[in-house]
Amino acid sequence: MTDEVAEPTTYPLLAAPADGVPAVVDTERALTQTAKALAGGEGPVAIDAERASGFRYGNRAYLVQIRREGSGTHLIDPIACPDLSPVQDAIADVEWVLHAATQDLPCLAEVGLKPSRLFDTELGSRLAGLPRVGLAAVIEHYLGMTLAKEHSAVDWSERPLPQPWLSYAALDVEVLVQVRDALAADLQEQGKWEWAEQEFHALTSFTGPPARQDPWRRTSGMHKIKNRRAIARVRELWLTRDTIAQRRDTSPGRVLPDALLVEIANTAPKTPAELLALPSATSRRGRPHTGVARHQRDWLEAVRRVGSMADADLPPATVRSDAPPPPRVWADRDPVAAARLTEVRDDLAVFAEEHNLPVENILTPDHLRRVLWDSANPLDAQTISAELTQLGARPWQIEVVTPMIVDAVSADLPTSE
Fold first, then answer.
1. I need a surface site. Which of 157, 296, 332, 407 has the fewest CB within 10 A?
2. CA–CA separation, 397 vs 361, rounded Å?
3. Where does the record place the HRDC domain (predicted)?
């Protein structure tokens, strides 16, 4: 007798908006009417935004979708209507429902949309312990239907937007409020509603990830760079590419791929012939890479500038960080701190399993490392709580984790010494 393999569950497809695809709002008059309709609706508003990542420079919104009961779905073109303050005024005091809010909040703020209350269905799903938290998976879990996602990576800056794309965009907010209601009931049943409320409240002040020091150091392939002068060439080429991309309003990777940028930095070509002779500068069909050929003077000038730099002006090979060292070296550098980190991690893993949620949602790993690093620092409950608060941990996280850290600090833990 053989074990039967369970058939994968097949869900009905949510293929088109129930009310059809609305016309795109692209005039001030239509925007005013939309704001009035939204103000007359009931309950939370579902909101989403489409960007042109990988096609355009930056992450501005090229379409904003909003749906509210009694108002219907509205597709707004923020390029034609760059100031959405009439919509903000209409829904400022209403709960906004978004999926993966941190992706959309910065670009929504650029057009004047900022929530005072919100519900993030992706973050809520993590807290609820769902194994998959993409929008389609969450809709399947709570509503028993699947969502068409075939246009998720298209160029939303294209105008006019094709009708199938608009249908896809409208579907992203079609059932978001129903998901919110089912998920909220699940969180309440699991005793996690207060945790979720604190997490959602923290998101209302989210403005985007912190600016990175020396973002050019994150160029893919930096590990291949040979010396400090080559590092300087990466910096100059990266800054040159960024200027060109911003001027052309295109993705930097479309101007010059990272792999080719790194190759130029390592080889330091001095002439157009040397530049175009690089292996990566020519396609399989023997044609020069468009970005190399079109902007060859810019790349060669960036290389020339670095060639005339004094050694003292070259960037350092590495930049010191204020973050603790990687945990893998803690045992050698501070065995006591390493033992405490292991103990708290074990406690967090147990708590996560008992409450069916990801460990990283109990506390950001970097926050834990910052508190525990340097075992010479005195750590009592008040100090730990204050430091976690300063780092941005929510009250529920502090309440859960502080006793674990106190126990680890007060315990006589074995070390690897």
1. 332
2. 9
3. 227-313
